[in-house]
Specification:
single chain, alpha/beta, six-stranded parallel β-sheet, 14 strands, binds nicotinamide-adenine-dinucleotide, binds (2S)-2-hydroxybutanedioic acid
Amino acid sequence: MSSTPLKVAVTGAAGQIGYSLLFRLASGALLGDRPIELRLLEITPALKALEGVVMELDDCAFPNLAGVEIGDDAEKIFDGANLALLVGARPRTAGMERGDLLSANGAIFTAQGKALNKVAADDIRIGVTGNPANTNALIAMTNAPDIPRERFSALTRLDHNRAISQLAAKTGAAVTDITKMTIWGNHSATQYPDIFHAEIAGKNAAEVVNDQSWIEDTFIPTVAKRGAAIIEARGSSSAASAASATIDAARDWLLGSPAGDWVSMAVVSDGSYGVPEGLISSFPVTTKDGDWEIVQGLEIDDFSRSKIDASTAELAEEREAVTELGLI
Ligand code: NAD
Ligand code: LMR
């Protein structure tokens, strides 16, 4: 592996997710021993708090942290970045749906898309965690016409991990026995966590569970509404688990998904599985060397079809809304 530091930009670095994400990135959770350089973007009023976080990063004396730069100017911070993790955006609070954040957060991603387009490294990969993640990624992608569309993704890995954890708890399997989990659609309550293609120690997961009402009435809503349940319990939105999933997604994207398995990523649709072209929708993907490919040929029954269609219809509505807002 190269020993040149990877330049990793993180936005919203002084926020809740940032407070977990930066330390895990710096300690090697992304790339092991390969050094990284952190480029941290915040809004001006949060720079002082960010300075405090950087003091703590210094105090960890991480051997593979090759440098940290902070600032409030996206063009300076993204300059030469190889990986941009776009976390900075307002989180929803109790009672809100993620779609309520469209106008509040959308504008952030027009500016950041333009800045990335101008100054990021040629091999840039961009992962969007800030909500509404899929449509924010669409906004950034549309505002960065010189960056290949395949370089943008939105985070549904947290949903994927949640689905694995719920299935493991139901069946008594180890999380490591569960493969081929899929999240389809939007990172929202309409998402479709699909266990019909998942496997538990090589056996079809839906057959092992053998309980359609658990799948429909417990599993799917528990995964899809987990973000709200955490807000309700914690008083603020998921942070450490979101940071962990952000790293899982970026690591697999750069280094490759495990052999014989796939991961869920929201990526630009090429029309596969009837998902309208151009939407950023979650699919089962395999990844290798910074590229992804949608897993093809999965059989979609009527139940799955209606779930996928409902979530992608919501994504199409979000696209219309941000078009009307002039963001794309
Ligand atoms: P937070 O409010 O603690 O932190 C957000 C940070 O972003 C703040 O420090 C803020 O100053 C900064 N920020 C705002 N505008 C910015 C801009 N233009 N440039 C740079 N930084 C900016 O929020 P959080 O808990 O860290 O969550 C961040 C986002 O991630 C929220 O939108 C949340 O809903 C989302 N989220 C997504 C997932 C997912 O699975 N996709 C999971 C959890 C949270
Ligand atoms: C989550 O899934 O935990 C985040 O997207 C936060 C939220 O608003 O649900």
